[in-house]
Design a protein that fits this description.
The complex is a heterodimer.
Chain A lengths: L11 E7 L6 E7 L2 E5 L1 E3 L12 H6 L4 E4 L1 H6 L3 H7 L2 H5 L4 E4 L3 H7 L4 E2 L4 E4 L6 E4 L1 H11 L3 E3 L12 H21 L7 E6 L5 H14 L3 E4 L8 H14 L6 E3 L5 H9 L4 E3 L2 H6 L3 E4 L2 E4 L32 H7 L4 H27 L3 H12 L9 H8 L9
Parallel strand pairs in A: 4-14, 5-6, 6-10, 10-11, 11-12, 12-13, 13-14
Antiparallel strand pairs in A: 1-2, 2-3, 7-8, 8-9, 15-16
Chain B lengths: L9 E5 L11 E5 L6 E3 L1 E5 L10 H7 L4 E5 L22 H6 L6 E5 L16 E6 L2 E6 H11 L3 E3 L12 H21 L5 E6 L8 H11 L5 E4 L12 H4 L3 E3 L6 H10 L3 E3 L1 H8 L2 E3 L24 E3 L19 H5 L2 H9 L3 H27 L3 H11 L53 H6 L4 E2 L3
Parallel strand pairs in B: 4-5, 4-13, 5-6, 6-9, 9-10, 10-11, 11-12, 12-13
Antiparallel strand pairs in B: 1-2, 2-3, 7-8, 14-15
Bound molecules: zinc ion (2 copies).
Subunit structure (chain B): Heterodimer of a catalytic subunit and an accessory subunit.
Cofactor (chain B): Zn(2+)
Main location (chain B): cytoplasm
């Protein structure tokens, strides 16, 4: 095993509080463009824009770290424009932090003819069929041009449910080798934080080995990858739980592609800090509002005459009352949903706010050391107090960190 | 701002009211509970109660218009099966409450959208045809009165027998004035005194509606609060009685260019609804004109070998991809002070909804600035001269659209689009029908281009 010299870092991580029961933590992460509080949900502004919200509106939701997708920005506007414009922050007028993925996952999942070799991701140009290659070096160069505050290594992604253990091991080991190539190719380690991505599927032994190898590379932050691909939730929880136990205490832990409220609170209990998902913003487009009592589809006829706020007690500009609030009602969202984009914009504001507010209240509960109580209340609200409806995976996962949702 | 209760709309013509001359004029409108605004000015057009692309907080923070035009047909599709939800909305100010519109803005409620889709069935003696999200319906004068009584817009446009689509024949023309007169008298008789009602002026010759207009002038001049012109050319023929001259004049005439607006202002029009703002936005065209002349700093680019400046910039071409300048160098709108052309071009090209939002904010700002300069010009007695200078500086019509509009959702696009009507419509105006083409996720560039972009490299097969 190699043990390279310590990497430069462009962040500081301060552990503020630890839950005395679960593995949950509250931390302060100081990034190049300001601090963010962990645990944290990051909305996804795929193509340098969050579903019709102005950067100012996104800022007003409290967001200080959002995602851009490298694959999309690599296509539009492309590296050359990004370099001329001065990076993604200047492109979108966003002065807060940005995290970019490596682009590899989208490439593999969106381009049917992509396959992975030691060199990189090979694919046929969908336009003219020319064979092409995306290497770890390309991905890092592109992310350097984007200038994001957190960048991700290119990894060999394989769905966790793949039954091929040999291929899974190859992907894990290759991801470690690609991490070394990413570290070597990274031009701005003092301005951009490179996160490694732990691979190894659902094989806990393989995950352990990957953790050891990657932790030794000492990247500023660590992601747990290859999840949210259709595996059973119980398997997901085992992987997260296993990895967080092996990861250094004083580095941020990012679980990629997670965003359902239950998944978030359970993952925090298992020791994860950062999450991203397109779901809250994508679902807004279909008229869905996320609330603590579950999701409401406001296109349903039952909301046509409902003049209450989208969610009672929500602090977003749509729902809150008093000065400067909009007084948006469910009936109004119903009236414009799927007919005017403004309907989707309003729900996007609400849903992003919900996710960020959820994580703020999680953090507050951890700091006041009442996170187990918080979890119980959360599941109680979500399922109308009916414990028979609590998902087994969540009950089991929380039992492993000392919280029994079933006890009164 | 006046108090919420109290008298109805107050319109004050600033300066001398010259009853012999229908020239450009300055005015101020005050409505209880709303922000006063000076005229000439415009109302933003809404669709289902929203200014397209802009959430109410964006409207409040980044626009300057004084009011909005709403269409009853956007709210009553459920009327056939029951009570439209808006009627059960708690008040007061139901339109504001229902649409989350900032309270400072004036609401103007008309029967139909602007522009309106032509109905296959004409109006009858008691009802007009409208087009809702679920199809065509008719609204009787009785029902219209009842909607107005509940919704209580700041300004109610009375029902008019406007034949969208084909030109009316002689027989029809004869009925138009009679029907409109009857419906207007039914509305004003039923509405509380403090309700501001605008009397519609029909898009037919004055002589063909003189009986109706004389009725308004003789019987209702003290009762109605304004006139709403479906054709601005009738304005000079309106009897110039002292009371009629003091009424504010609203144009529903759908000007297709700033030159048309200026012409109507020169006739004495006060308030406008301007569909071309939205058409330009949807086409990805950023308006760039200023009245009466571009600022000295403005780019002096010319097109078509003439020295005329374009009225707007098509933001689709990739020539903007590197441009770090704002849409309009001197513009103080949110878009121009926060974002550059490169971003807006990227957003259009990526079909991100924010692209249209940013252009919409800018375009409404450009029009607000335009009207404020027009008022300044009238104040200085320079309006006629300034209009000539404007005509020498700018092209007469907006640029052609090249790019695709936003993904079409609106039901109002499903029909044949705005009716073929009386006047010229700019060639770029009709945006109906296109669908977003191409997936967002697969590169449409060739391998060389992808390599050039640094996206990936070509390899031997
Ligand atoms: Zn809300
Ligand atoms: Zn501007």
């Amino acid at each position: 095993m190699v043990s390279p010299a310590s990497m430069p870092s462009a962040l500081t991580f301060e552990l503020i509080a630890r839950c005395s029961t679960t593995k949950a933590r509250a931390a302060l992460l100081e990034l190049p463009r300001g601090p963010v509080q962990l645990p944290l949900f990051m909305p996804v502004a795929t193509q340098a824009s969050l579903k019709g919200l102005t950067p100012q509106q996104l800022e007003e939701t409290g967001c200080r770290l959002c995602l851009n997708n490298t694959y999309h920005l690599g296509l539009k506007p492309g590296q050359e424009v990004l370099e001329k414009v001065g990076g993604a922050h200047k492109l979108q007028g966003w002065n807060h932090n940005i995290l970019t993925d490596s682009g590899g996952f989208q490439m593999v999942s969106l381009l049917k003819l992509a396959n992975i070799t030691e060199e990189g991701v090979r694919f046929l140009s969908p336009h003219d069929g020319t064979p092409m290659l995306l290497t770890p070096e390309h991905s890092i160069a592109l992310q350097n041009a984007i200038g994001s505050d957190i960048i991700m290594q290119l990894d060999d992604v394989l769905v966790t449910t793949s039954p091929d253990t040999k291929r899974m091991r190859e992907a894990m080991e290759r991801s470690v080798r690609w991490l070394d190539r990413c570290i070597a190719a990274h031009a701005n380690p003092t301005r951009q934080n490179l996160f490694c991505i732990i691979q190894g599927g659902l094989d806990l032994e393989m995950r352990k080995q990957c953790c050891e190898e990657m932790v030794a590379r000492d990247t500023p932050g660590i992601a747990i990858g290859g999840l949210s691909g259709g595996e059973a939730k119980a398997d997901y929880c085992r992987v997260v739980n296993t990895c967080t136990s092996l990861l250094p205490e004083l580095k941020p832990r990012y679980v990629m592609g997670i965003g359902y409220p239950e998944d978030l609170v359970v993952s925090v209990a298992l020791g994860a800090d950062m999450f991203d998902c397109v779901w809250p913003t994508r679902t807004a487009r279909f008229g869905n509002a996320i609330t603590k009592y579950g999701m409401l589809n406001l296109r349903h006829a039952s909301y046509a005459n409902d003049f209450g706020p989208v969610e009672e007690g929500c602090g977003c500009i749509c729902c809150r009352t008093g000065e400067g609030s909009l007084g948006v009602t469910r009936a109004f969202v119903h009236h414009v949903a799927a007919k005017e984009t403004v309907g989707a914009h309003l729900l996007t504001i609400h849903n992003v706010w919900y996710q960020l507010a959820l994580m703020r209240s999680v953090r507050q509960a951890i700091m006041e050391d009442r996170f187990p109580t918080f979890l119980k209340q959360f599941f109680f609200d979500k399922h109308g107090g009916d414990k028979s409806k609590y998902p087994d995976w969540a009950v089991e996962a929380l039992l492993t960190v000392g919280v029994d949702l079933m006890e009164d | 701002m006046a108090s919420e209760k109290g008298s109805k709309l107050l319109f004050e013509v600033l300066g001398n009211v010259d009853t012999s001359n229908a020239g450009p004029r300055l005015g101020r409108i005050a409505i209880p509970g709303r922000k006063d605004f000076e005229t000439p000015n415009f109302f933003a057009i809404t669709s289902r109660g929203v200014t397209p692309h802009m959430t109410p907080d964006v409207v409040a923070a980044h626009t300057q218009f004084g009011g909005v035009h709403m269409a009853l047909e956007d709210f009553i599709e459920k009327a056939r099966k029951g009570t439209p939800p808006i009627l059960t909305c708690p008040g007061p100010s139901i339109l504001h409450r229902f649409t989350a519109l900032p309270r400072s803005l004036v609401t103007l409620l008309a029967p139909r959208r602007s522009p309106a889709v032509t109905a296959p069935v004409g109006n009858s003696n008691t009802a007009v045809s409208i087009f809702t999200s679920t199809g065509f319906q008719s609204v009787s004068s009785k029902a219209y009165v009842s909607y107005m009584k509940t919704l209580r817009p700041d300004i109610a446009i009375s029902l008019a027998d406007v034949p969208y689509g084909s030109l009316p024949g002689t027989k029809r023309v004869a009925k138009m004035g009679d029907r409109t007169q009857l419906w207007l008298s039914e509305l004003v008789n039923e509405m509380p005194e403090e309700q501001a009602v605008f009397a519609p002026i029909l898009p037919i010759d004055f002589l063909d509606q003189s009986e109706y207009i004389n009725y308004v002038a003789d019987e209702l001049a003290d009762t109605v609060s304004g006139l709403a012109f479906y054709d601005s050319n009738v304005l000079p023929d309106i009897p110039a009685t002292t009371t009629i001259v003091k009424l504010p004049r609203l144009s529903l005439d759908e000007p297709s260019s700033p030159a048309h607006i200026l012409r109507q202002i020169s006739l004495g029009m006060d308030i406008f609804t301007i569909p071309f703002i939205g058409f330009a936005t949807d086409a990805g065209i950023a308006l760039t004109f200023r009245f009466p002349r571009p600022l000295p700093s403005a780019e002096t680019q010319t097109t078509n070998g003439t020295t005329l400046l374009p009225l707007g910039i098509d933001m689709w071409p990739s020539s903007h991809a590197h441009s770090l300048t704002p849409l309009s160098p001197s513009c103080t709108c949110y878009t121009c002070t926060s974002h550059h052309k490169a971003y807006i071009q990227h957003l259009l090209s990526a079909k991100e909804m924010l692209g249209w939002t940013l252009i919409q904010i800018h375009n409404h700002h450009i029009i607000s600035t335009f009207f404020s300069s027009v008022r300044e010009s009238i104040k200085n007695g320079a309006f006629e001269r300034d209009c000539e200078e404007f005509a020498r500086a700018y092209e007469s019509e907006l640029p052609e659209k090249s790019g695709q509009g936003p993904r079409v959702r609106g039901y109002h696009f499903k029909s044949e689009g705005p009716g073929e009507e009386k006047k010229n419509r700019a060639a770029w105006g009709n945006l109906g029908g296109e669908k977003q083409v191409g997936g967002e996720l697969v590169p449409d560039e060739g391998a060389d281009e992808l390599e050039g972009k640094g996206f990936a490299e070509k390899i031997e097969a």
